[in-house]
Amino acid sequence: MTHAGFPSGAVAAGATQHVALELDSFENLYVMRDRVRSKRIGVMGPLDHKTCESLYFNRS
Questions:
Q1: What is the C-alpha to C-alpha distance for residues 45 and 51, in angstroms, rounded to an integer?
Q2: Are 12 and 23 within 8 A, CB to CB?
Q3: What DSSP letter does each residue of the chain carry, written as one string?
Q4: Among 11, 12, 30, 32, which one is least packed by beta carbons within 10 Å?
Q5: Where are the domains of the chain?
Q6: Which residues pair with 47 in a beta bridge?
Q7: Tens digits of residue pLDDT in 3-59
Q8: Does the reported pTM lie above 0.85?
Q9: CA 46: distance to chain centroid?
Q10: Dist CA 28 CA 37 (whole Å)
């Protein structure tokens, strides 16, 4: 399996590429983002796509 965000090769079988969550508020989205960042995982966003807000994670 390949992934556009990982151009150097295949993504490992079973790798998670998308997770969708429904949160009660934008405040909870920021809480979720900060919780992930506290684990030293890179997070970009939230980004407004007009139909949804997205967080993007990377290996940092």
A1: 15
A2: no
A3: ---TT-TTSPPPTT---------S-HHHHHHHHHHHHTTT-EEEEEEE-SS-EEEEEE--
A4: 12
A5: 26-58
A6: 54
A7: 556 566 666 666 767 788 888 999 999 999 999 999 998 999 999 989 989 998 886
A8: no
A9: 9
A10: 14
